[in-house]
Amino acid sequence: MRKLSSRNHRLYALATGLLGMILCVYLPTLILHLAIGPGADRAKQGWWTHFSGPTRPLPVNGYEVLLPAERTIALNPDFKQATSWIIWFVPEGTLYKIQFSAEAVSRVTLDGKILLKAPPKSRSRKVEERWCRLTPGPHLFRLDFYNKDGGGWFSIGFLTPPLMRLTALQNTMVAMPNRDHLETWWWLMRLSRPGTWFFGLLAGFSLLALLLPLARADRLYATIITIAIVAAPALLIPDLSGREPYIGPVIHKKLQQKQPRYVFIGNSMLWSRIDDSLLEHLLGGVPVYSIVNFGGLSGIHYLAMKYLLIPSGIQPKRVFIFFRSTTLVEPTARTTGPYFETLIKRITPAPDPVFERLAHGRETSPVSAFQRYLDTLFSVQKNRKMVRDAVGNAALWLSIPGTGQLRQEKRNQLRSLVNKHFALKNVGAGMDKESLRSGSREIPDFSSSVAKSFLPSILELARTQNFPLVFVRVQERPQDNGPVRDTPEMKQFIAELKDYLTINGAVLYDFTGDPELPLSMYGQGDHIEDPRQYTPLFFNRLHSLLQ
Amino acid sequence: MSFNSLSYLLYLPVIFIIYWLLPHRKQNAFLLAASYFFLGFIHPWFALLIFFISSANYCAARAMQWWPMRKKIILVLDLVVSLGVLAYFKYAGFFLENMAALLQAVGLPSFQSSLSIVLPVGISFYTFQTIAYTVDVYREDIPVQKNFIDFSLFISFFPQLVAGPIERSRDLMPQVEQRRSLTPEQVNHGLLLLVWGFFKKLVIADNTGLIAYKVFSLSDPGFYTVWAGVFSFAIQILADFWSYTDIARGSALLLGFKLSRNFNHPYFATSPADFWRRWHMSLSYWLRDYIYIPLGGSRVSAGRATGNIMLTFLLSGLWHGASWNFVLWGGYHGLLVLIHRWWRMILNRLQIGVPSRLQPGIVSVKIFLTFLFVCIGWLMFRVTDTSRLLAMLQLVPWHAGAGDFQVAVYLFFLCLLYSLPIWLHGFFHLQWSRQHSLDDPLPDSILMARPLLMAVLFLGILLLRSPAPSTFIYFQF
């Protein structure tokens, strides 16, 4: 190995190193830019609004136009959610009252801490207000906006003592972060990450040390600093991912308005079986409400009960939980991956300790603790979905290159075509489909697995809230037109489950083997083709429990 | 313990620190214990099995030394034990299943084959390593290792235990015996190999693997989709296996060992034989030295040489797995090598030459055609159900469904984007190899940019790794 000690080598090392650092910081920026699109394109992506008022450039060089002179900001009606960041240049340090109102579920985070949520908890209030002391200079607002019907509006303003005159945040006061600008990167990093100074110092030290390992690759200290340099760019990247808004308040409001006597919790098995309005009709106008989380299993049902049903304060006569086969004692099933990460964030206001322990094995395992530490250290990982989407978009662009509306439409068509191509109904028979659907089909031992499952926690929640629970086991798709028959192992499992539920004051109803559930009633997989066919059957079978 | 688990990220630094604090002799004992823990972490019985195989081979080699007159019988006995263990764990179920089917086919009373044996991790790799050692001792190519700890460490050295490279005694044993040292250059190179290996696995293999998985899960995929899936699988299997080797080599380098290369940009091969000189090199050389050459190699009659090639490749296929599709895959590659050999003979006889200005173009065509034929082989490798495989091979483009081509183009580009670093690395290597050999030191400019490269790769892992990580494909072999 040749020694790297000449002056030219050092200069080369400096140039390469600095170029690398800039590349590392800017590479994700460029990808994000491709994914999101600059300026006006951002509105198309649902990231930001089309503004209702006039806009003008900000005096700060490099920043984009942000807020209109008017207070109200509308979301593009084609999109259901928006996440954005605003840097507010607070003119003077004082006590401000932040006022926020929104049509749908939203939250405002100030410098990484949750400040306000909308809609307000109290039905009599229209706006949410919060006092906070702000120092002069830049502060980071993050806005998470969600409206399942698409579109919507929000407004944000502040009141300054002593006159308490309401002032809308205007474009002269705030800046939309433009990720192409180095200064914005600095502010975003400073304002979006906890422990910024520590990471900043670490990254700065690594930057200063950049010359050493490159010029002296044969020294031991060089190795240590190399490791620091490898990690530094990732530490420098701010956390730009918005948290999915918690949809709890919307569900609470609906439950409070409806005051259902029977509440159903489940996934698409429930959605394809129970038609709320038909059941209400059969019950003579008794209100019912279904909380459906597609794809969710026992862990999600537990969260739905804890964070969507219980905080609403209603007292249903019975709560029905729909499940399939052995999923009630499989705590880790369907709790990971991008879809479930998003779903969990939407139905929980903050990480749930029981869920974290049972579904992810956190708390107990040192490996999990290490994983959590790495996640905190390299919060750049939270931008993964955006970056991966950008790679997908780039592949679409390469398939149908070119600009213009027509080309974009063709790319959208191709995206739909790919989704249709790989729809679950096109998946082949056998092991692959089974694994895609519900993981391993091996029947677990009930007695040894129940303690590690969500079942005791669900029963405990129901007991404390005085909710009578009914667990409904749905029948899986019959193989031929005859009734489904369980294997002896499955029968044993269900018998033990039934005993366990009975001891704990809950009821199990099992639809498996019901002669009135032929293959012809089934649609895709274990789903029923039409819930209006199943709902009367459900009503007849569980009539005694619905009185 | 899998390389792509967080447990390994915790395990390796702990081993590294304790290992370098110990004196040389204790280092070997410690590494042996660490290797057994590594394997026992997957299943305690696997550690017991490797202890049994190591003991049997150690005894066989020592016995050959003590009774040189009877070394042939000892060798045969040792081969029976080693291959017997491999046959029992890997091929017994396959053999019984086919025996039952055969009896049924000829109308004789058959039986229900329900033998289900768990395949011990890495058995195919360490069994071949032990066989090579015993045969080398028999040939007196290497001295007998008298120290049991050193010998056991040679067999069970954890970085290469699960999926190779299959190391030769003459390369690895001296490293086990000698005092090892740690240089910053070794650490830097080892870290780069680790980061590059993790990138290949977590970003390239897992992302392209997800595409291949989706394609091959379809009940009725069209012509173009199938071949886009094959392309994805081709990338996946290369990145997956290569990444394992890189992580193994990087880990070993941190512990002061230098493991052999297992890959040399196989998709830039210019012929089927060249492909096998670049793909899973340690297995190719093993098959050459312990099967093909002992059978007579090419220095026999044309018919027998053909048979030797076919037999070697069929065994190579069977080594990969107890399934007919692997045998078919091996046979297919044997046939490719033979056809290419005949083609070259015809060209030589006709004395057809290519002008030098056309050479680069010809090389590109050769690379493309080799890759194409290798991809056809990957279809046989990926689809284990023979009837489904035949149905896929019978697909024709003019019966492809609407949109099939467009979807395939999209999948192709998606794979290409994820695998871009491997292709860039390949092109760089192609340029480099025109004037340099593999072992030539890289220029200063590249060495100096190493931390930068590592930083970019590390960032790539954080941002682009697949949401659905998978185990290494070669773990099943």
Percent range for β-strand residues of chain A: 15-25%
Instruction: Report the average pLDDT across residues of chain B.
Output: 85
The structure class of chain A reads alpha/beta
For the terminal residues of chain B, how far apart are their CA atoms? 16 Å
Largest interface (CB within 8 Å) is between:
A-B, 68 and 51 residues
Total strands of chain B: the figure is: 0
Q: Give the uncertain stretches of chain B in residue-range form.
A: none
**Spatial separation of the terminal alpha carbons of chain A:** 85 Å
Number of helices of chain A: 20
Average pLDDT figure of chain A? 70
Structural class of chain B: mainly alpha
Major sheet size, sense and barrel closure of chain B:
none
Count of alpha/pi helices of chain B: 19
Q: How many strands, which pairing sense, and closed or not: the largest β-sheet of chain A?
A: 5 strands, antiparallel
Strand content of chain B: under 5%
Can you characterise this structure?
The complex is a heterodimer of chains A (547) and B (477). Chain A is of the alpha/beta class. Chain A contains 20 helices and 15 strands. By secondary structure, chain B is mainly alpha-helical. Chains A and B meet through helix 1, helix 5, helix 6, helix 13 and helix 14 of A and helix 1, helix 8, helix 16, helix 18 and helix 19 of B.
